[in-house]
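Internal tracking record. Fields below are filled automatically when a chain is submitted to the structure queue. Please do not edit lines marked as system-generated. If the sequence contains nonstandard residues, flag them in the REMARKS field before resubmitting.
Queue: standard
Priority: normal
Entity type: single polypeptide chain
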Amino acid sequence: MGGYTVWGRLCPASESLSRGLLSLGLAQGIKVISSVPKGSPLSRQDVAFDPEDVTVRTRKAMEKLFTGSM
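SYSTEM-GENERATED OUTPUT FOLLOWS
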């Protein structure tokens, strides 16, 4: 996903959820709406996505199922 233009760092799911980080699986075709310093992680607040998108809905349902949050 993204080829040479994207890089990432793994972190525990608990950290990702608590910090509101954007999952790479949700990043395809997403529009960045905030200024983010180079090398900084993207949060869900930094991007605009359609909350009705099937991938977004599935991710939210998965988080709720496995964490009891969101």
